[in-house]
Specification:
The complex is a heterodimer. Chain A is an all-alpha fold. Chain A has helices at residues 2-15, 42-56, 66-70, 74-84. Chain B has 9 helices and 8 strands. In chain B, helix 4 packs across helix 7 (109-117). The chains are: A mainly alpha, B alpha+beta.
């Protein structure tokens, strides 16, 4: 669980080329797609979706409204990956 | 009657007199890496810039940071081909494409980034014309300047060597570089550009680097085997980088 958390943080930093950030800098519950949090944008969402799909063979449906919730924080992504793998 | 030798040799198509260069910068090799900080770009945008876009924007900023709303002409022979090549490889392997790369792979990517970063809504133009991309880009910038000489025009050319998979004949010296010029009155150098039928074989030198010699020495020329380009300084003021 802790491993997966760190793995996903590393995936975020690397796939989104967050040059000035360490995986450890990302709080487990910090909002990823909000100006109050990481401030990622819609291109990041697509990019992250592709990285998750490649790494965990996740099937993502962009029409599914719950995807927004799954992507909102590291903790939610961990739960999402655990639930799907 | 015999034509004088010079007339036979020089069939001039067109010349453009008085390209007013008010400022110029070069980015290449060690200089382009040193300019990599790009503090004027928001870090969230900066992380997406390719090495080519970084050089381009660095040159653009240096030439026009105190000229808000400047018109911008950008030229490149290969543009963001490095990005496109990676995407083609992804397609061949049936992998999904990076949305970041996709959105920034077009020739005018740097021109679009320029307008976003500086909140500049003036027109921008992107030009590519094979080996003569630098020269035709400069003419486009000059023609736009001539339409409205009261307003400066920023011109940036940048290019990178082809990705190895294209197997072009070796990487040329300084092939990865950017040149920025600010066209504005009063200039520190006025350039006359003439294009004529070439009587020489193609030269291996890059056209953009041949042009730089004109700024440094007052005169330079370049040929692709069909057309001869000649640039001459027509006013005698010193130019410094």
């Amino acid at each position: 669980m802790e491993n997966l958390k760190n793995e996903i943080k590393k995936l975020i930093v690397e796939s989104l080329e967050l040059e000035e950030m360490n995986p450890d800098d990302i709080g487990d519950d910090v909002p990823l797609f909000s100006e109050d949090g990481l401030g990622l944008d819609s291109i990041d969402a697509l990019e992250l979706g592709i990285a998750l799909r490649k790494k965990y063979q996740l099937g993502l449906d962009s029409e599914d409204s719950s995807v927004r919730e799954h992507f909102s924080s590291v903790n939610n992504l961990v739960a999402f990956v655990l639930g799907r793998v | 009657m015999e034509m004088p030798q010079t007339q036979k040799a020089q069939v001039e198509y067109k010349s453009f007199i008085g390209i007013p260069v008010s400022r110029w910068v070069f980015r290449g090799g060690a200089e382009s890496r040193a300019a990599g900080s790009l503090g004027f770009v928001d870090p969230m945008l900066r992380r997406r810039l390719s090495p080519l876009a970084k050089m381009t924007l660095s040159a653009a900023y240096e030439c026009s940071k105190d000229v808000p709303g400047v018109r911008f002409v950008y030229a490149s022979r290969h543009g963001e081909l490095a990005r496109t090549t990676v995407m083609l490889e992804n397609l061949a392997e049936k992998e999904p494409l990076s949305p970041t790369s996709f959105s920034l792979s077009v020739l005018n990517a740097s021109a679009g980034l320029f307008s976003m970063i500086f909140r500049n809504t003036a027109p921008t133009t992107a030009i590519s014309a094979c080996k003569s991309s630098f020269g035709y880009g400069l003419l486009e910038a000059f023609l736009q300047f001539s339409e409205n000489p009261g307003q400066p025009v920023l011109y940036v050319f940048s290019d990178e060597p082809l990705p190895a998979i294209y197997g072009e004949e070796g990487v040329k010296e300084n092939a990865s570089h950017a040149i920025g010029l600010l066209l504005r009155d009063p200039p520190v150098a006025r350039i006359r550009c003439s294009i004529s039928r070439s009587t020489r074989a193609a030269v291996p030198e890059l056209q953009s680097l041949a042009f730089l010699k004109c700024l440094e020495r007052g005169r330079s020329d370049w040929s692709d085997g069909e057309k001869m380009w000649l640039w001459e300084r027509v006013s005698e003021t010193n130019v410094s980088a």
